[in-house]
Each structure stands twice: as structure tokens, then as C-alpha cells.
Design a protein that fits this description.
By secondary structure, this protein is α+β, with helices and mostly antiparallel strands. The chain is built from 10 helices and 6 strands, in the order E-H-H-E-H-E-H-H-E-H-E-H-E-H-H-H. The termini are far apart.
């Protein structure tokens, strides 16, 4: 029996979701490539923070995810408290727990390493960069594409990513949820679900305890929006 790593990622999500652990781009009928191209063309005119260079496809994908564009990424965090915070913002809170290194062992090259999300196009090994191949959303047959999602550590292109200790799983060729794919491919579950009280008073109490532990709107969203949300919640 394989040893499960003690390094975990966490994700807060509504427990009553009809599409658990499924990226937003596939919850509705979105054209992923069109959304990404339009975002990259129009974002520089309205961005109040530095944006990635044109060729940094992976960074554009991370940025798009964090400002709300539907992508093939799923948000996770290295912080259990952050995962709990986001879960408690929903009416039916659930925290998912993932073993990311174990997940990566299921796909080539079958190691617990986190693949780089960028590559030098002049490097003959660059074509094997899994995350880059997915992010480019190639329509032609791709010999390096894999089915299962892979866990990646991102470039922190947005202040919220650092604050939330962000990390991602990025889906491959299958549009099934991560949960469904793991059920098919891994008899020993790598994902656990922790259900939390759905009573509004209990959720408010838990959020108040988190605030005393330093996890609040302004720590998770270090901007004016986060400040406004925190002040409204405590008054």
C-alpha cells in the first residue's frame, strides 16, 4: 500500500453543488479558448496592476482565474484555515482535502514533483510541459496531453494569490470532475470531504473565531473589496 503524503491542499466549496470539483469553464457552455483570448486582448486597458507579458500563457491563466474568468483551473490552498474560511462563506459548507503529490503520481512522468507551468519554446523538452500544453488549449492532436488533472504551484501574479496561499489543479483532456476521474483511476481515494455545520449562526461563530486567528476578508482579499466585506460582516 502506497504511503499518502502528509502535505495536503484544501478547497472550500458548497456541499450542495451539482458539479463538485469541476472547473467553472465546464459548468456552463463556455468556449474556453475564446474567453482566454478576449481576456488577454482587453485586460491591459483596464488593469490597475501589472499584467503578464504576452507570451506568459500560464500567468495569464492564473490571473484570469483569480479575477473570476471561467478557466480549467480549480482553486486550492495550502492553508487549512483559508479553505475553512471560503467554505463558511457558502450556505452548505464543505472542505475538500487533496493529496497533490499523490495525484501527480497518476500521470506521466509518474512522480510526486510539481511540473513547471512555463517552458522555453526553444527547448526540445518544452513540448512535454503538461501545464503549458493545457493552458494553450491546442485544438490539434497533442501527444503530450494527459487525461487526469495535475497539481501545479503557480506564479503569484496577483496579490490575492499570495494572501490565499493559492495552488491549482489544472484539468487535462477529460471534462469530468476531479472526483469522478479519481473514482475511475485511483481505488485508494486521494480526496476527502469534510462537511461543516450549515446553520447560519454556527457559521457566523466559526467565521468570528477565524477572524481572531487572523483569517478574515482583508487577509484573504487584501484590497478595498476585502476591507468593505470584513467591515460589513462585523458591524
Amino acid at each position: 500500500m502506497r504511503r499518502i503524503d502528509t502535505y495536503f491542499w484544501f478547497r472550500g466549496e458548497p456541499g450542495d453543488s451539482l458539479t463538485p470539483l469541476l472547473p467553472k469553464v465546464w459548468r456552463d457552455d463556455h468556449n474556453e479558448n475564446t474567453l482566454n483570448q478576449l481576456f488577454r486582448m482587453r485586460a491591459p486597458a483596464v488593469s490597475t496592476t501589472p499584467y503578464p507579458d504576452r507570451g506568459n500563457t500560464d500567468q495569464w491563466l492564473f490571473l484570469a482565474q483569480h479575477v473570476g474568468l471561467p478557466t480549467r483551473l480549480l482553486d486550492w490552498t495550502e492553508s487549512a484555515l483559508a479553505g475553512l474560511y471560503f467554505a463558511l462563506l457558502t450556505d452548505d459548507p464543505v472542505v475538500w482535502v487533496l493529496g497533490p503529490r499523490e495525484l501527480n503520481q497518476l500521470s506521466p512522468p509518474h512522480t510526486a514533483d510539481f511540473p513547471l507551468t512555463w517552458a522555453d519554446p526553444d527547448d526540445p523538452k518544452a513540448a512535454g510541459n503538461i501545464a503549458l500544453a493545457w493552458a494553450q488549449d491546442r485544438s490539434e492532436p497533442n501527444a503530450h496531453a494527459v487525461t487526469l488533472p495535475v497539481a501545479v504551484l503557480p506564479t503569484n501574479i496577483h496579490t490575492r494569490m499570495s494572501a490565499q496561499r493559492s495552488c491549482f489543479t489544472i484539468h487535462g483532456t477529460s471534462h469530468d470532475s476531479l472526483l469522478t476521474q479519481l473514482d475511475k483511476n485511483e481505488p485508494s481515494p486521494l480526496v476527502a470531504r469534510i462537511r461543516l455545520p450549515s446553520n447560519a449562526a454556527q457559521r457566523r461563530s466559526m467565521l468570528e473565531h477565524l477572524r481572531f486567528l487572523g483569517v478574515s476578508g482583508t487577509t484573504m482579499f487584501p484590497d478595498l473589496q476585502g476591507l468593505a466585506q470584513e467591515l460589513a460582516a462585523i458591524q
